[in-house]
Amino acid sequence: MTDISRRTGLTAAAAALLAGTAATATPASATPRTPRTPRGPRGRALQRGVDAIRATGASGVLAEVRDARGRTTARAGVADLGDPAKGPVPWGAYYRIGSDTKTYTATVVLQLVGEGRLRLTDTVERWLPGAIRGHGNDGRRITVTNLLRQTSGLNDYITAESGDFTPDAYRRNRFRSQTPKEQLAAALAGPPQWLPDAGDPAEERRWGYSNTNYVVAGMLVEAVTGHPWAQEVHERIIEPLGLRHTFMPGSSPYVPQPTATGYTYFPEETRPVDTTLGYGGGADGCLISTTHDHGVFLRALLGGRLLRPAQLAAMKSTVPVRDWVPADGVRYGLGIACRPLAGRDDGIWFHGGTSLGCVSEGGVTPDGATSVTGAAFTLRLDSAETHDRQARAVLRMVDETLAAAA
Considering 90, 175, 398, 406, which has the largest number of Cβ atoms within 10 A of its Cβ? Predict the structure, then answer.
């Protein structure tokens, strides 16, 4: 199982509306244990949002809002549809954050830029000679900026290699991992969507979401540093921020406990399939984390703790995108996107990620003061209507909670 981009997969929460909702407000340093009534406008907004996602059919939902005053967590639904004894979704549950991983990868790349070891205008060819060639693909026309901003024109390896998408195919392949070179080869098997402007490729404005861009970004990190992408993410982000519950699973298909069962409704299937096990990709989407850790990361990033001012400004340099998420005014930067928010002149920043069995969503204010992070433990691929309903509910949870926290 690889990360499913928000453009190539329909996302939604599952059916079976079962019992189990609660919320808790705790100090920033504490671990939520005992459910309590939500406190204040932000706590009530978060719980309403979580309940609304569950009402779209989610088996379980977990979310957190965090600022300098502390954090409030909320949950709804159950840990396992087939085993009521497992109770509600556990506090602090681990989940695959999917394409939210891309923001971590972009942060490492921009740190290398800030250190003078890499330039945003460097081409892929300079660091990975001959890696992008054939069928009209040309690494001499693709810069670091194009990769991070999704303006390279590279095909998405997930779409390129898609075959049977059935429960049986999932079970056959759930222990199968891929190397970055294998993923890139799949993307290069056909002509690109476009080649960036030869005169100034870094300023290309055409946009197309492709997981391949971040596979190549991970390869660049290794070429520049001489270290694996995972080591650089750990030493530059995970360790300094004390993210004790964020890690790369490598080729392991398992999610550690505590967690909730992840379900997927496959096309033309009427029952959910347990898709908790699966390979999650690499620099494009492999990270496993918690709502708490991911919120700490987002606040640190937008608060200026991870990037120098010039590189954070570059990350926020965006191009307009359409048909990526069901929201107006979305713009994509270097590994992070922004959208308007009612009541805030400066909007919010976000990314989000989808994997088999889990939908990750979050948002953070431009100053890093407040973050909202959440996970729905079901992915529905059988209905565009259900997909759209859940996607809108997830975005609404983030928007309304951040608006209440203002």
Answer: 398
Rounded CA-CA distance 221/243 in Å is: 21
235 secondary structure, DSSP code? I
What pTM was estimated for this model as a whole?
0.92
CA distances from 305 to 93, 165, 298, 337 (A): 26, 41, 10, 19
pLDDT for residue 127: 98
Question: In angstroms, rounded to a whole number, what is the distance separating the alpha carbons of residues 329 and 188?
Answer: 31
Who's near 1: CB < 8 A, 6+ residues apart? Answer: 170, 173, 174, 253, 275, 277, 278, 279, 280, 355, 356
Residue 77 exposure: Cα atoms within 13 Å on the Cβ side = 33
Q: At which residue do the structure tokens 């920043």 appear? A: 349
Report the pLDDT value the prediction gives residue 31, as an integer from 0 to 100: 42
Beta-carbon contacts of 70 under 8 Å, excluding residues fewer than 6 positions away, are: 25, 26, 27, 28
List the chain residues with pLDDT less than 70: 1-39, 162-163
Angle between helices 101-114 and 291-302 (to 10 degrees): 30
CA separation for the pair 272, 15 (Å, rounded): 8
In this predicted structure, what is the pLDDT of residue 38?
A: 53
Q: Which amino acid is at 389?
A: R
359: helix, strand or coil: strand
Spatial neighbors of 18 by CB under 8 A, at least 6 apart, are 59, 77, 78, 81, 84
Residue 294 contacts residue 362 (beta carbons within 8 Å): yes
